[in-house]
Model the fold of this input.
Amino acid sequence: MGYRILETDSIPAYLRERGHWDDAGEIRVREVSDGNMNRVFLAASVDGTRSLAVKQALPWVRVAGPSWPMSPERADAEARAYEQVARVAPDKIPAIHGYDGENHALVMEDMSDLEVLRTVLNEGASYGPDTSVRIGEFVAQLAFATSDFGMESADRKALVAASVSPELCKITEDVVLSEPYVEHEHNHWHPDLSDLAAELRADTRLRTEVADLRHLFMTSAQALLHGDLHTGSVMVGEREGTPVVRVFDPEFSFTGPIGFDLGLYWANTLVSAERARALGTLTDHADQLGLSWRAFEAQFRRLWPTRVDTFFDDAYLDRFLRRVWTESLGFAGAEIVRRVIGFAHLTDLTTLPDPVPASRRSLLLGRELIVRRAELASPEAVRALT
Ligand code: SR1
Ligand code: MG
Done:
């Protein structure tokens, strides 16, 4: 039949056709698209006992429309990432019921009983003790399993080749790792940040450091990444009295530098801290970088004895983790900068009564993380910057 764009009305027939729904009762469907890129529908039986989510990639960026074409094959990368995570951390992603490569559509668990982490933070909640620990473990589990420590060399080469995702990587290379430092139509900012935006653009040392991070992003195929691990890609809540953390939306997945996943998460936690500080609601926000790093490091070290190539010795592990730490800080800084003066700003800041002070603090912190990443030796050293 070929690729067709699914609509609310066509979802019931689609689910039946694909074998996801076998009873003949009414299926109620609502569109809950939220992210920048795709459409998401929730389908439920009238009595609410059955429900599924359908996510479809459109041939363009959803929020921009057909003026920004984008291959729907990005959904293939998402399906591939979920497949890899399901092997090593199935408890940290939604259950996937099937992927339809022809229509670039995923049928998955309905997570509407959970909430997007960014949303609950913006509403004033704290992180709690589990969320960032689970995120750190998630990054370590996926990274280790898909690195040369977790896979035989030839299998890894095949994974790297299969995971090449030029269009989505180019978005990141542009919107995160270059545009904010040059004049670009995607860039915009609050008028009271103009002086700082100009200062960052004129800062040649900063630009060289971002060039270094950009090149790392383009060339360092350490492991399969989520690729867009911000607080809008994490659902949190409770099921049967147990805290639940689910990472979703890995359509930007590719084999890249592990620090990119940690860095994106850190950037978003640091900005959430600036929001909370501005509102006088700061609780555990600034602890999240340290919590996720320590959980990442502990999980990676736990997995190390299972490595497939023991030429990599324990001393090398220390060196490797140190590099991941430093690179994560740099990527965190770049993500903060773009979220304030580049493309796709954060509601954490834009919904503040006065976004300027927190945005200025975020931008300055972003610059520090980029240019001083090599000398910031610990989560405590980062906290001292805030
Ligand atoms: C056109 S996409 C803009 C941003 O949305 C995604 O969530 C990524 O962060 C990307 O940079
Ligand atoms: Mg997304």
Remarks:
- Residues 35-37, 61, 171-172, 175, 228, 343-344 surround 5-S-methyl-5-thio-alpha-D-ribofuranose (ligand 1) (CB under 6 Å).
- The chain has a mean pLDDT of 97.
- The chain has two domains: 8-108, 115-383.
